Amino acid sequence: MFWTQTFIPTLREAPQEAESASHRLMLRAGLVRMLMAGVYSYLPLGYKALCNIQKIVRQEMNACGAAELLLPALQPRDLWVRSGRDEVMGEVMIRFTDRRGRNVCLGPTHEEVITELVKSHVSSYKQLPVVLYQIQTKFRDEIRPRFGVVRACEFIMKDAYSFDKDEQGLDKNYNAMHAAYRRIFSRCGLDFISIEADSGVMGGSVSHEFMVPAESGEDAAFRCAACRAGVPFAEGRSAQCPSCAGTLEKVNCVEIGHIFKLGTKYSKTLGAQFADSQGALQPIIMGCYGIGVSRLLAAVIEQNCDKDGIAWPREISPYEVIVLPLDVTDAAIMGEAKRIYDELSSRGIETLMDDRDERAGVKFKDADLLGITLQVIVGRESLKNNTVELKVRKGHKKSNLPREDLATHIQGLINV
């Protein structure tokens, strides 16, 4: 993609309302724009990074044996009344009456809907287990939206649900999801903490939160300075780690995921049953597993930035390489830049060409702000020496490579 053919409205300064590092950088780098408080448009670079996160999530969910589906955002309010959560959700839920007089809501989550769906099609223990997931927009009327997409009224979530015949099956799926979450967050380049947590309005017996230490985080967690293990808040009040006796530190965090052993909370209430091997009816045993996908985008930026801008982890970066011809009016420079662009593209390497007629300093600053993993710099000096300058955005490490070796070298870096 050429810069002049896409839409990247960068800003020199962040708007005053930007409260966190990720919010400032998402606005400055042209990833998002606010339509109204708590509601954001994802621009081309932001959407590409978001899709890269979704790709990782899908790969790991599929590897767990979960099947993807898409549930309606528009839900009958009666389902929530039957589960008892209509009142619990309070004013956070967006409710209204449609022209047919039906009481409906915009889904803040989908436990009721998925239970209603599965109960209509699963009747025997032979049909269990079932594990389903979706990546979908949720709606919550936040009283105080903050930090850009971290606390928004409209956000993207991955929610998965497991349905089992017994506790052993639930344990197996729960542990598989816990391991999958660790892989997802590691692939996103995150330092994260997993902590046993309160189940809250979701209900159930056991839950774990996944937290990302971030200066602007509204949540707090305890972590061992020695073994890096997360410690539940109540235990964290003591001075020592219960695992290794190391010193505990309190850190501000952003919650990015939460998994729950729901048990029979929803199946009993909504009548989701199966016939066991003896023919007796039993409530289906459930688990649910959520990741804030759009919030994850902000968390990645919080932990992967410096004074110059974003420094994307390789798997999240909207492009893998940005090519910077320093003088687009010079035919030789543009010819070499186009040759590099074509060769990288032919190898399946997603590449952005900064073909703007701008000063070199502007291009350097914007490239660092955008944070694309690798920068290829083409100027008169490199042409004269038959070399190309390659810069790794994270850490600003630079090297000069022979022109003929560049594409192979980049391919090796990307395939690590």
The major pleated sheet works out as: 9 strands, mixed
Estimated helix fraction = 25-40%
Give the percentage of residues in beta strands.
25-35%
Secondary structural class: alpha+beta
Query: How many structural domains?
Result: 2
Could you explain how this protein is built, in words?
The chain is α+β, with helices and mostly antiparallel strands and 416 residues long. It is built from 12 helices and 23 strands. The chain folds into 2 domains: 304 residues, Bira Bifunctional Protein, Domain 2 (BirA Bifunctional Protein, domain 2, 2-Layer Sandwich), CATH 3.30.930; 94 residues, Rossmann fold. It is 31% helix and 29% strand. The strands form 6 sheets. Strands 3, 7, 8, 9, 10, 11, 12, 13 and 16 form a 9-stranded mixed beta sheet that branches. The protein has a 5-stranded mixed beta sheet with strand order 20-19-21-22-23, with helices on both faces. Strands 4-6-5 form a 3-stranded antiparallel beta sheet. The chain starts with 20 loop residues before the first helix and ends with a helix.
Keywords:
alpha+beta; 9-stranded mixed beta sheet; BirA Bifunctional Protein, domain 2; Rossmann fold; 31% helix; 23 strands; 2 domains; 416 residues
Layout: helices, strands, pairs:
Layout: H1 21-28, E1 32-36, E2 39-42, H2 44-63, E3 67-68, E4 74-76, H3 77-83, H4 85-89, E5 94-97, E6 103-106, H5 111-119, E7 130-139, E8 154-164, H6 167-187, E9 193-196, E10 206-213, E11 219-224, E12 230-231, E13 248-263, H7 265-270, E14 273-275, E15 281-283, E16 285-292, H8 293-303, E17 305-306, E18 309-310, E19 321-325, H9 331-346, E20 351-353, H10 360-370, E21 374-378, H11 380-384, E22 387-392, E23 397-402, H12 406-414
